[in-house]
Amino acid sequence: MDDAGFIIGSYAITFAAIAIFAWTTIRRGRKLAQQVPPEEQYWT
Amino acid sequence: MRVWRVALLVAGKDLRIERRSRVVTNQIVPFAAVTMVMFAFALDADVVLQRVAPGLVWLATLFSMLVLVQRAYAIETDDGGLDALRVAGVDPAALFLGKALALAVQLAVLEVILLGTAVVLYGAEIRLEGGVLLVTTLITATCGLAVVGTLYGGLAAGFRGRETLLPLLVLPVVAPVLIGATRAVESALGTAGAVVSEGWPWVGLLTVFAVAFGVGGTLAFGPLIDE
Amino acid sequence: MTETQTPPGATTGPDRSRRPGTGTTATRVLGILALVAVAWLVAFGLGFSPADRDQEESVRILYVHVPTIWVAYVAFVVTAICSGLYMFTKNHALGFDRAAGASAEIGVLFVALTLVVGALWGRLTWGVFWQWDARLTTTALLFVTYIGYLAVRRLGGSHHQRARRSAVIGMLAVLLIPLVHWSVRLWRSLHQEATVLRTDGQVKMDGLMLFSLFVGVVAFALIYVWLMLHRTRVMALEDALDDHGLEAALAARRAEGEN
Known about the structure:
The complex is a heterotrimer of chains A (44), B (227) and C (259).
Chain A: H1 2-33
Chain B: H1 2-21, H2 23-43, H3 46-77, H4 81-87, H5 92-122, H6 131-156, H7 162-173, H8 175-189, H9 200-225
Helix pairs in contact in B: 1-5, 2-3, 2-5, 3-5, 3-6, 3-8, 5-6, 5-9, 6-7, 6-8, 6-9, 8-9
Chain C: H1 25-48, H2 62-88, H3 94-125, H4 134-153, H5 159-187, H6 207-258
Helix pairs in contact in C: 1-6, 2-3, 2-5, 2-6, 3-4, 3-5, 3-6, 4-5
């Protein structure tokens, strides 16, 4: 069926985009956390 | 009332600088006129041009406004004029209103010239019964554009990359003005059989826009330029 | 990534043993809940929920399309509220500014997804990707407005300059949205009327479809909160690094010279 590609594609695009954003955020957080003194990291 | 007196002084100062530098007459008006000619090349049909003339007038106004706003702040930030005015104790609200007033006067002149160009080049016809609507639209739309331009110009002033940032900020914001002013002018000119009474709701929209951003800008301008 | 090499400016001490980053127990629990909700959404949206009478299978896109735009609206409201809190509270806490910025970033992401998914849905039901109708046009302008907001955040200057400028834009943007919507609505309208958020309080939708939509809202809301926490913390790290970056770089240089 032709519609299935569109429907599954829209789900895939949504979750892939969110996953990429989440992944880059986490990566950046891990990298920066090493360079910042722990007392500045209010959540720890 | 002191605010308005200072605002008039600031507006007078800006307009005097513009008159002496002749940038508006020598560069911006020709730029707007060239834009109008380029539109004609792009659309390439008399019927279409007459139909879309009001929209093109406003589009050319918007593009020219971006250049005008850059100018209005370039003359301030180049020599630290904005800081000097602040140090001198000029009320930011008065500064905002003054600069907006100066911009509005320049825009109004530009719009009249562009409307004239549309009559000559695109065959738009100005009719008598739409005269009141046309003038009201011009005034309200100009006020809305001027306050938005002044506010966002002040925000981007003095930063690298402001030339590219300003269009990105301003164009989405003035989209309601473009829509409203175009439809109102269409009604005033009777483009494609539009009647005058259809234009007045749009003038209402333009008025709300101008008042909202006028008040918002007057309040927000102080914190914005207060570095 | 190798953990053996110590980057310049790294803090060494007993704390090094813990996994550095922006995660805490709370965010991990939240992340797992979000993943479970996404799994539920996929199961209900693509599996259990029935096909629509008019739209047939393509109605399944609704469970992604509608929650993303709702959450995006919430995100922009949060941006405006945090901007206001920054501007109008006494101590002008930068935390509010960072929360506003993080919320706007996530909102832009979600609006972008709404537009892309909506274009796909439009292709299925209307036959075209884009229609110049009121809600689509308003959403597109909303998207561009907040792209501008994010650009303003990157203008430079001190943290408080950034916060003040972006707070003004963040609050004006909320003023702008109803105006844009009103103008575009007067201009033209063709989008299907809102089915759930109706002013008369009457919901007209099949039960299981409504539940799937509810699962979607929960899933995207959890994702939003999770992303918010992490992004705000990363922004705090970025700001802290801006403040300490020069000191750290100088210290590293000196340490190199002594060796």
